[in-house]
Every structure is written in structure tokens, then in C-alpha cells.
Specification:
Distance between the termini: 60 Å
Largest sheet: 13 strands, antiparallel
Shape: globular
Helix content: 10-25%
Radius of gyration: 25 Å
Strand order of the largest sheet: 6-5-4-3-2-1-13-12-11-10-9-8-7
Strand content: over 45%
Number of helices: 8
């Protein structure tokens, strides 16, 4: 890597690049169509990529908060025109990682949270090349090939959805050649992109470092025919709607599979644990009842301990719920606490790029959020919230969150970092699904965390998948194969065992 950075122009020269604008002429070799190529980046993580060839258009962008894309013609999966849409899930995580990778230029791989591993030496175009695997995020990687003589990158392979083991046709391969110095930085003037059975040959015509680039280049395109609601007012409505949602949520139980992985400093998985639960809700809190551990049913002794733990937690939440219902002062204090948390979020964050889209068959309003530069935090909660960036999908009619993606754009320190800290890049995803056309309930949750608690460092990833939602009935059973008694007739009665 030191040889590569030196061949590129040196770490200092690369670190000085805050923006890059690359443009070129393009030929679709299969169709014989000509077009254009464009790649614009802005540190620390923004990028805009575009290929135009006849009726085909392929765009992917990340604005530092959310990712979006557009594919039309043969470049799309089904060959049809598609409107710009916000990217989600593994594709969005891959876009954020791509932004970090493109802007870092591997000059500070560790600082950019990029793990590197030597795979071997391979032949690329008749020349020997070092093959390295770059881990950009959990399950997001990129295969890099460095010429052993020039030390420059000659090929990149981008697995579908970032998985090195995927055989999906969406895997991309990019070849680089004809390197020339541009203000002391080596840059390729010929690029060949292999994607979905097509080959795009690019001849670069212009490269600029540190030219002014407006942030609007990376934002979701504005094309609204109807006025959008005020986002802060919408969020307050969503907050007021939560009590009604919690009452509906009490009526449902579901099954949950929790997949937890731990990683080393290079992004390699060290341990993996899968647990299955039956899930109940009380007082807005999720209560998990373990039924399987690493795909194995619990022993009689384990089941007994789990039942006792579950019933204790259920009874405590039930008691708290009853106290709030019977004590107006306690209820008012709890509502004030919730309102304070909402107010902290609204003050500390700014909300941008509102747009309308379709999500899981529903009409939603999507918007980005990030630190409010005009607000100085006055307490710890606001300081933590102000380091969050992300994107939210809200069902406009139901006034509920359909999906949320958020990450910390800076490290979070508690007790000056002596007690605990969360690393920059720690992120989470929450997705909900519409059940019985009456309420949005969790369907997927994902957390990637890098933290330190006192002297212990932790890097892990947990994915929760919710399924099999059922209305609470007498015949409902806890766990798919656990012999138990009747489930409670209502959520004011804990399950019997």
C-alpha cells in the first residue's frame, strides 16, 4: 500500500484532494452507442457517478446522508425506465462505503475504516498483479488488483451488494490503464466497465482536482408536483401518533430471528450466534422470549430459566404500565420526558431533500437528516443526537415510520471517553411493514457497532428479522415447537408456562 500511495503521488498530495471531477467519452461496445461518463467526488464521502449511452442511463450518488440511484433502458434490471429512488439496505450501505473509498484514495485506509487483506498474486491482462480484498463495511468489499511493477490499480471487482461470494450478474469489473500525471497525481485516462453483460469503454477527457463543487450535485433531484408538508410538523404528528400505535402493537405477537456477528480489526468475522425468539409488547417495550439458541431448542432447564426471566420482565412492564395509567402526575412526567427527547432531536438536527416515493407498495415521504449547524448543544443528549445523519421514510397517510437509516458521522464519547465511546460510522437500520392495513410493525433491524466500554473494545453486527405476525388469541403459542399452556387472553396477563 505504501508503494501504491507513492506511485499515485504521495500521501500528502492525495490528502489535499477535497474534490475530484472526472469526465469522458463513452462507447457501449455491444450496441455501438456513444455517450458520456462522469464521476464527481467531495470529501469525506460524497460522490456522483453517471453513465449515458443512447437511451440507457445509470446514476448512483451519495450526499453524505442518503444514497439514490436511477437506471433506465438496458442499464436497468428489466430494461424499463425508472424514476430516481432512494437506495436502501445493502445497496445503500455499499454506496456510503463507496463514497468513503473513492474519497480516501486508500491514502489513509485505517482512518477510513477500510480493512485490507492480501489474497495473492494473479495475472491481469498479461501482467502480474497483487490481489487485495478491501473490507469497506460488514459484508461490503471490493477486490483490488495492483500492478506489481507500477504499483497502480489495474482492476477492481465490485461484488453484487458487496458480497465477495456472490455470483449475481450485478457484479461489476472495472479496468484502468493509460495513467498520466494530473497536477502530480497519477490518474487513468482509459477505463473499461463490465456490467450486466455490457462493456463500456471510457476515454477520459477531463480531470480536475479541487475545483468548486456545489453540494446540490449529490442531492436527490427535485421534481415535486405537489407541495410537501413541513418536516418538523410531520415528525411531531408521528410522535403524537405513537401512543395509538403502541396500543395496536400490544395486540400482536411475532417470531424473531436474531443473527449476531463479531469482527476483528480487519473486518473479518470472528464469531456468529443465531437466536430465535417469540416477541410480545407491553407499554411500548419489546419483550423477547428465547425459544432456540444457535438453531437448537432449549433444554428443560434453559426453558425454565427463560420462562422465569420472561415473566419477571413482563410483570415489571405491566406494573409500570398500570402505575402510569393510575397516576396522572407520573403519566405527565413520562410524557414530558418523551416530548423532551423529540424536542432535542428537532433542535439538534436539520431536515433536507424532502421527496415523495413508493415504498413496499405505500406512498411515503422521504427526507434526509443531519447535524443542525446553527444549533450549539446544551446537554449530552443533544450532543449525541447532533452526530447522527441518515434518511427516513414516513407513511404520509398513517403518519408512521416505514424505514429509518442512521449512522454517527463522528465519534460519541461518554464521560470524556473514559466510560464509553461509539466510533464514527456506527450505524443502524430499522424497517417496518404494514400489517392488516392498520399498523406498521418491525420487519427488519440492523446495527453495526464499533464501541469501547471502559477498556473493552467491541465490533459487532446484529440483524433482526421479524415474521409471522399474529393477533393475540387464546390459541396463540409461544414458539413454533415449544409445548406451553394457553397464551394470555390479553396483554395485561403474562403468558403461562
Amino acid at each position: 500500500m505504501d508503494e501504491y500511495v507513492h506511485a499515485e503521488g504521495g500521501a500528502r498530495a492525495l490528502a489535499r484532494i477535497q474534490t475530484a471531477s472526472i469526465a469522458g467519452n463513452l462507447t457501449d461496445e455491444a450496441a455501438g452507442q456513444s455517450g458520456s461518463y462522469s464521476l464527481i467526488t467531495k470529501a469525506p464521502s460524497k460522490f456522483y457517478f453517471e453513465i449515458l449511452a443512447g437511451p440507457n442511463r445509470w446514476i448512483e450518488a451519495y450526499n453524505g446522508k442518503s444514497a439514490w440511484g436511477q437506471e433506465t433502458g438496458d442499464s436497468s434490471r428489466d430494461g424499463t425506465a425508472a424514476a430516481p429512488h432512494t437506495l436502501a439496505g445493502a445497496v445503500a450501505i455499499g454506496s456510503e462505503a463507496t463514497g468513503r473509498y473513492l474519497n480516501s484514495r486508500l491514502a489513509e485506509a485505517k482512518k477510513s475504516k477500510i480493512g485490507l487483506r492480501l489474497v495473492g498474486v494473479e495475472d491481469v491482462g498479461g501482467r502480474k498483479a497483487y490481489h487485495l480484498r478491501a473490507s469497506l463495511a460488514p459484508h461490503v468489499s471490493r477486490e483490488l488488483f495492483f500492478d506489481t511493477q507500477t504499483h497502480l490499480i489495474v482492476r477492481e471487482v465490485i461484488p453484487a451488494h458487496g458480497s465477495p461470494d456472490s455470483g449475481d450478474m450485478d457484479t461489476e469489473e472495472i479496468e484502468y490503464s493509460d495513467y498520466r500525471p494530473v497536477n502530480g497525481i497519477a490518474a487513468p485516462y482509459r477505463i473499461t466497465i463490465h456490467r450486466r453483460g455490457r462493456i463500456y469503454a471510457v476515454t477520459v477527457t477531463r480531470i480536475e482536482w479541487n475545483a468548486p463543487v456545489n453540494d446540490s450535485v449529490f442531492d436527490f433531484p427535485k421534481n415535486e408536483s405537489r407541495p410537501l408538508p413541513d418536516i418538523k410538523a410531520l415528525l411531531l404528528e408521528v410522535a403524537r401518533n405513537q401512543k395509538a400505535i403502541e396500543e395496536l402493537q400490544k395486540q400482536y405477537t411475532c417470531h424473531l430471528v436474531a443473527d449476531e456477528e463479531k469482527f476483528d480489526s480487519r473486518g473479518q468475522i470472528t464469531t456468529r450466534e443465531v437466536k430465535e425468539y417469540d416477541v410480545f409488547n407491553c407499554g411500548g417495550e419489546e419483550i423477547r422470549h428465547l425459544v432456540k439458541n444457535d438453531t437448537k431448542p432449549l433444554t428443560a432447564e434453559e426453558q425454565k430459566k427463560e420462562d422465569e426471566k420472561f415473566n419477571k420482565e413482563f410483570n415489571e412492564l405491566q406494573k409500570r404500565d398500570a402505575e402510569l395509567a393510575s397516576d396522572p402526575k407520573k403519566r405527565e412526567k413520562e410524557e414530558e420526558r418523551e416530548q423532551t427527547a423529540i424536542s432535542d432531536f428537532l433542535r439538534a438536527e436539520s431536515f433536507t431533500n424532502p421527496r415523495r416515493e413508493r415504498f413496499r407498495g405505500q406512498d411515503v415521504i422521504v427526507f434526509d437528516f443531519g447535524p443542525n449547524p446553527d444549533y450549539k448543544p446544551r446537554k449530552l443528549a443533544e450532543s449525541i443526537v447532533q452526530k447522527l445523519v441518515g434518511v427516513v421514510w414516513i407513511d404520509e397517510q398513517a403518519r408512521d415510520v416505514a424505514r429509518l437509516e442512521a449512522r454517527f458521522n463522528d465519534s460519541v464519547k461518554i464521560g470524556g471517553g473514559l466510560l464509553a465511546s461509539l466510533d464514527k460510522g456506527t450505524n443502524l437500520v430499522l424497517e417496518q411493514t404494514r400489517i392488516n392495513e392498520e399498523v406498521w410493525l418491525p420487519s427488519y433491524a440492523e446495527v453495526h457497532a464499533a464501541a469501547r466500554v471502559v477498556f473493552v473494545k467491541v465490533r459487532q453486527n446484529e440483524i433482526d428479522r421479524y415474521s409471522d405476525y399474529k393477533k393475540f388469541r387464546v390459541e396463540t403459542r409461544i414458539g413454533p415447537s415449544t409445548p406451553v399452556g394457553d397464551a394470555p387472553k390479553s396483554l395485561n396477563e403474562p403468558p403461562s408456562h
